[in-house]
Amino acid sequence: MRWFAAMLMGFGLVTTGTAAEVYPGKAITLIVPFPAGGPSDALARQVAQRLGARLGQQVVVDNVSGAGGTIGLAKMVKAPADGYTLGFGTIGTHVANVALYKKLPYDPISSFEPIGFLGSAPLVLVAKTGLPVKNLAEFEAYARANAARMSYGSAGAGSISHFGCVMLLSSMKLDITHVPYRGVAPAMTDLMGGQIDFMCDQTTTSVPQIEAGKVKAVAALSRARISVLPALQTASQAGWSDVDLRSWNALFAPKGTPSAIVKRLNDELIQLMQDREFRGSMQKVGLELPGPEMMFPSLVTVAIQLGIRRDVPALKARSEYLD
């Protein structure tokens, strides 16, 4: 019978376990479209390390930054749809960029196979320690009197930090100079050094700096209080009920990636999101992880569609604040 099996293999009619690749059979590249040191990169590296351990193959983070995440994701969607190149996406790359860029190098829905959510985080208005404000009302009054001399930083046009400040300032009808950086890390460095006045940053990167006394927390840019900063006044409490800003992050594959691979990755993500140690480390910086009921890939598409329907018109209506 051995000769018969060998003959069939020669004609490609059967394969052996060594010839048939079992996914994953090699290292996986995770493209993060932002520089190292920012909130997306920090989360992506945690996910990459733990997902790789679950899959039995290394997941290598590749930071391909620039243009609000569009450069990195443009590279990802052109990769072979074989499960060995994945991408990290956010509300910035898949929603805000639709309003901020006339022509994206990808379609936020049709260019991707969503795998699952990776968590969401509220935004905080943080200021340099020397800014003479303690809450949002004082910030609004000070900014109105000093708008021409102030500046705010972001991770670049289209980033959640840019999107957040645009929504806040437009609600206040304030026009303040925007200083775009190539990521949150250099922007935060300049905020701590006093080169810019404030940022609208995710808790993921702002909480450690707030706790260290390197920046000042002014307000939670949300309706609900933030669990890791329970004493911090919310925008809603300060009278800005239309300011309710939260980021989301998700894992994507190029369009056409086999459904079996997408399911394998989704299954592993579901288990990872339930890992007690991982949840604990993420909750310390204010990141909220999804439960199993929120891990259907289709829900990522729904979030993108809702964001485009709700936030893109709002951003375009505030076009005078986007520069």
Brief descriptors of the model:
9 strands, disordered N terminus, D-Maltodextrin-Binding Protein, domain 2, 9-stranded mixed sheet, 2 domains, 323 residues
The CATH class name of the largest domain reads: Alpha Beta
- Tell me the overall shape: globular
Total beta strand runs: 9
Rg value: 22 Å
The CATH topology of the largest domain is what? D-Maltodextrin-Binding Protein, domain 2
Overall pLDDT metric: 89
H/E series = HEHEHEHEHEHEHEHEEHHH
* Class based on secondary structure composition and strand pairing: alpha/beta
Main pleated sheet: 9 strands, mixed
User: In DSSP terms, counting alpha (H) and pi (I) runs of 4 or more, how many helices?
Assistant: 11
Fraction in helix: 40-55%
CATH architecture of the largest domain: 3-Layer(aba) Sandwich
Q: Provide the CATH superfamily of the largest domain.
A: Bordetella uptake gene, domain 1
Domain module tally: 2
Characterize the structure shown.
The chain is of the alpha/beta class and 323 residues long. The protein has two domains: 167 residues, 3-Layer(aba) Sandwich (D-Maltodextrin-Binding Protein, domain 2), CATH 3.40.190; 124 residues, D-Maltodextrin-Binding Protein, domain 2, CATH 3.40.190. It is 40% helix and 18% strand. The protein is built from eleven helices and nine strands. Strands 1, 2, 3, 4, 5, 6, 7, 8 and 9 form a nine-stranded mixed sheet that branches. Helix 2 links the parallel strand 1 and strand 2. The N terminus is likely disordered.
What is the compact description of this entry?
By secondary structure, the protein is α/β, with parallel strands linked by helices.
